[in-house]
């Protein structure tokens, strides 16, 4: 039951994260670096504040495993800068699809290198469906962007960087939890340190923040709902299931992002794109079954 609740928590987090790309389009005058640093930075510092008592309680374990904390914090700092820049350059759908879609493979590689990854047929089938779904989504029609090919290419490369750092901070936070550190402590310390590292970026890029109420509202929403609340759900999920499973389940995020981009800001999705959505939902089913099977085998 705990693993099922963990899966549901990651799904809910993914739905909240899927709103970020569309929300960011309502503040086009803001740099993607500012949006990313504010959303993840403020959200991370709030997480740290909420968990401060547990962090103090676990301070000796956090100090002992300081390397995981530093790796996670640096990844948290880089991820939003790459992610929001990718969406700005290549469009909401492609940016989100590449960033999140590349993460399961990268996560599996990281866990394989650290000897934490156990390959199952169900996970492999789920990941395959998800990856093919991501590919179909990325190459579906997208008539809303007039970016030049070079910009889209750079956006895709930034999306791959975002996918790697997403996988990396998920893995490092999970490692802290496996060392006996409470979920709130691991997530709060990782994202709090990452948020502190993002403060200089906020200060350097924040000149347009107060130009309009819309700009401020977008940043407040991004920090409080997808980043703060979303990562509370994600942290709970990570405490119950592996990082690779959590990341694979979060392939739901680009589906939500693509649907919202189509309904609200006019990005188009072809039949090929919808087939990709179906494959991603199949991925969720396979990975969920895989996690439940692993739970049964371990009990």
Global geometry: globular
Number of helices: 15
Number of strand elements: 0
| Run of helices and strands | HHHHHHHHHHHHHHH
Q: Over the alpha carbons, how many angstroms does the gyration radius reach?
A: 18 Å
Largest sheet: none
N-end to C-end Cα span: 12 Å
Please state roughly what percent of the residues sit in beta strands, choosing from under 5%, 5-15%, 15-25%, 25-35%, 35-45% or over 45%.
under 5%
Helix fraction by DSSP (H/I, runs of at least 4): over 70%
Low-pLDDT parts are 143-147
Q: What is the overall pLDDT average?
A: 84
Query: Which structural class should the secondary elements be placed in?
Result: mainly alpha
Description:
It is built from 15 helices and no strands. It has helices at 2-17, 20-24, 32-50, 52-57, 59-64, 66-90, 92-101, 103-113, 121-138, 149-178, 183-205, 213-240, 243-249, 252-264, 271-298. Helix 3 (32-50) packs antiparallel against helix 11, helix 8 runs antiparallel to helix 13 and helix 9 packs antiparallel against helix 15. It is globular, with a radius of gyration of 18 Å. The relative contact order is 0.24.
Q: What's the quick description here?
A:
By secondary structure, this protein is mainly alpha-helical. It contains 15 helices and no strands.
